[in-house]
Amino acid sequence: MKPAPTALPLHIRQLGQQPYATTWQAMKTFCEQRTVDTDDEVWLVEHPAVFTQGVSGKAEHILSQSNIPIIQTDRGGQVTYHGPGQLVMYVLFDLRRLGIGVRELVDVLENITIDGLKKYGLNAVARKDAPGVYINDEKIASLGLRVKKGCSYHGLSVNVDMDLSPFNHINPCGYKGLKITQLSEHGVHCYPLDFAAVLLHELTIQLNYSPQ
After folding, report:
1. Which CATH class is domain 8-211?
2. Taking the domains of the chain in order of start, what are their residue ranges?
3. Which of these, 30, 57, 84, 99, is most buried using a 10 Å CB contact count?
4. From 31, 151, 173, 190, active-site residue
5. Predicted TM-score (pTM) of this structure
6. Contact indicator for 74, 56 with CB cutoff of 8 Å
7. What tens digit of pLDDT does each residue of 135-173 get?
8. Annotated catalytic, 173?
9. pLDDT per residue over 190-209, tens digit each?
């Protein structure tokens, strides 16, 4: 019998509420400076209200102006919204070391979210035509990644208990009329870090990590 593979160390950083641009720059710096020996990290954060556009983002998906800033980023996907009460989980992983590609990482992030929601009694699904996680065709979690030199950054956002009205200013993720939901609308009242703990548990199982 082959011995079980050794679990990889994973550093968890709880950053609290941080400006989007500052965190984005910190992720890029981390990825530029990491080496083959650098441990993978997960950053847990909430952002002040901000719209972010992906590399292929189209201006037409911003439906109306507001006082919320719009930042052009280097992640995949179209426009989305971040704000207080939303859990953002950034995954700074060496995909070559994990032996997975971008599609597999997307699958993992969707699966841990679906499994996490199931623990709260919620049935959610992923859609191949529109990455993310959905409850009754309403989006509760969004994904956007960047991979550079085999290493990922950006990640996953899950709506926990937030003001959803800013989503009315955009076509979320580029989909006209897409409805957005959150845990609190389904009777689950918790803090973003509470749900983060559930996601991290699922993540360590699926990718054989040992949290540090």
Report:
1. alpha beta
2. 8-211
3. 57
4. 173
5. 0.94
6. no
7. 999 999 999 999 999 999 999 999 999 999 999 999 888
8. yes
9. 999 999 999 999 999 999 99
